[in-house]
Amino acid sequence: MELVRKLILFLLFPASVGTLFGQAKPTEFSESDMALLATAARLGATHPFLDDSSDVWLEPDSLNKFFTDKIYQRLAGNAYYGYKWDEGFTCDGKEIAIEEIKDLTGTASAAYRLALEQSLIADKYQINPKAVCQIGVCIVGVEAAETERTLPGVMVEAYLRNSATKKSFFIRYGAGSPRGLAAAMRLSAAMLAAELEGRNERPDNQ
What we know:
The structure is a single chain. The chain is of the alpha+beta class. It contains eight helices and eight strands, in the order H-H-H-E-H-H-H-E-E-E-H-E-E-E-E-H.
């Protein structure tokens, strides 16, 4: 994409470098480019969950059923990528325990567990109830069908915990898909597995 090319030029070749190779023409951005840059800035923005998330006032019944006030006060991020708090969680190796899957909606826990197990196995994790690294999930909301404003999707609160170090990672996030609720659950599970893999000190089990 042209905007990607411009972003690379903008980030990797600041104006000061031009003095080394002669004066270069500045990178120019169109109005549409600037709009996309503004969108990118919003996607990368970090805000406190309690100040930023519309769930606080639109879906208050989805709060305090799994996470505690202390966790909500520490969560930060945005509505696009979720709100996170990392105490310093790491995982060493490829064994994981699914400690709990709670479902406030009463409709999706079995399907979500299956999607999560498949995502973890795809990332070469062995599911072991005695593993030091643990996952807990609470499904706090489900949108079963597409509406004018939303896609079929699932909202979850989840933690990754190392029982040896007593450090955890917490995240509240949503995932939706135009292909339906089952696809949204698979996406949500894959996103959580990716958070685990990104904090694995031995991702190849070496």
